[in-house]
Write a structure and sequence with these properties.
Elements (H helix, E strand, L loop, with lengths): L2 H11 L5 H11 L2 H8 L7 H6 L1 H10 L2 H13 L3 E4 L7 H4 L7 E6 L8 E5 L6 H16 L3 E4 L5 H11 L4 E4 L13 H9 L3 E4 L11 H11 L3 E4 L8 H10 L3 E4 L10 H8 L3 E2 L3 H7 L21 H10 L6 H8 L3 H13 L3 E4 L3 E4 L2
Parallel strand pairs: 3-4, 3-7, 4-5, 5-6, 7-8, 8-9
Antiparallel strand pairs: 1-2, 2-6, 10-11
Helix pairs in contact: 1-3, 8-9, 8-14, 11-12
């Protein structure tokens, strides 16, 4: 790391100095070290408060301190955190052309942020079982074909996408709206460790230790979409946070893919509307892989990856009709000819194995 990079990291780490203010200061002084030097003079440079505002200037002035400087780099070293600046050779080329590219990325893990094949998978935090399955299967299929899956490690679709990439034995990147040493949501601690252990990365533009402030998450979405060739939206309401990422992807000239859903489901409103507006509708990972010319669907291959099923004839007789539509207990009894006691026993075991699900209204449906 060069001296100029160190000053760059220092300036970008100061609370209140976001990307816009950072680049504004660079346009005035040419480099971050000159900002440091100007703040050390006997007089307050009048152009700095004007450029960043009074509150941010106060924090910047307080951070113009050698102890702050050394604490910052000590924290990076002890936390095993890389700081990748726009001066660095390993800064992702895909981010250089987006609006307000992050001056510095803090990175845990060994993932290659310059990988050529990356797809963002986004969706609602509150999602259906179908949404969970789609996110996981799409991510798994992409990972199995050498694509890095990028998401935000949020609850819901994000977490299932990361899980799917791990199932596919591929790297996955989590872009956070907090410091990379802060696990959010807290229940994703195991997921974060698995991401790192699998060769993936946890990434943020926010200095380590930054808490998950709500305003940070819309800003981080430009990094999620900006890193990638395209963004896949699985589920989301029309006003969902996932739509922020999708709109950013469009602004960045990236491709948008959407998983269609029921016209009666509020959580399918966003992807269905995006399809009407020109997004690429996708039914399996192969639709994305072929669209991007990354892989060709094998002749006679399955449309989507699926866990192995070991069903006996009676179980298969139950599951087969549920793959096409949701059915009640009475309808299944009539179709299969099984006694109520035997049917109930099979349904219980199939549900425990994750092969079927009991939907609202007492209807059963198959997931594998």
């Amino acid at each position: 790391m060069t001296v100029m990079e160190q000053y760059w990291i220092w300036l970008s780490s100061v609370e209140g100095i976001g990307a816009k203010r950072f680049y504004r200061l660079l346009s005035l002084y040419g480099d971050a070290r000159s900002v440091w030097d100007a703040l050390g003079g006997p007089l307050t440079p009048p152009d700095i408060p004007a450029a960043v505002g009074k509150a941010a200037f106060g924090k910047l002035r307080a951070a113009r301190d050698e102890s702050y400087f050394y604490r910052l780099f000590d924290r990076l070293e002890k936390g095993g955190i890389r700081a990748v600046t726009r001066l660095s050779d390993d800064y992702p080329p895909a981010l250089t052309g987006i609006y307000d590219p992050p001056p510095t990325l803090y990175v845990r893990g060994d993932g290659d942020l310059s990988a050529e094949r990356m797809i963002a998978v986004v969706g609602s935090r509150i999602c259906t079982r179908d949404g969970q399955r789609a996110a996981r299967e799409f991510a798994m299929g992409l990972a199995q074909n050498g694509v890095t899956v990028v998401s935000g490690m949020a609850r819901g679709i994000d977490s299932w996408a990361h899980r799917g990439a791990l199932d596919g034995h591929g790297p996955t990147f989590a872009v956070l709206g907090c410091g990379v040493d802060v696990v959010y949501p807290p229940e994703n601690g195991d997921l974060a460790r698995e991401i790192l252990d699998s060769g993936g990365a946890i990434v943020s533009e926010y200095v380590p230790g930054t808490p998950p402030v709500p305003g940070n998450f819309p800003a981080r979405n430009r990094i999620v979409s900006g890193l990638c060739e395209g963004t896949l939206i699985v589920e989301g309401a029309k006003a969902s946070g996932a739509m922020i990422t999708v709109n950013l992807a469009l602004d960045q000239g990236r491709e948008v893919f959407a998983v269609p859903g029921s016209i009666y489901s509020p959580l399918s409103a966003a992807p269905n509307q995006m399809i009407l507006d020109g997004a690429v509708p996708v039914l399996s990972p192969w639709d994305i892989l072929e669209h991007c010319r990354w892989a060709q669907r094998p002749a006679g291959g399955a449309a989507r990856p699926a866990p192995k099923r070991d069903l006996d004839p009676e179980e298969e007789a139950i599951v087969a009709p549920l793959r096409n539509e949701a059915l009640s207990f009475e309808e299944l009894a009539q179709i299969t000819g099984l006694s109520a006691a035997k049917l109930n026993s099979h349904l219980t075991m199939l549900e425990l194995r994750g092969i079927i699900d009991k939907a609202p209204g007492g209807l059963y449906r198959a997931y594998t």
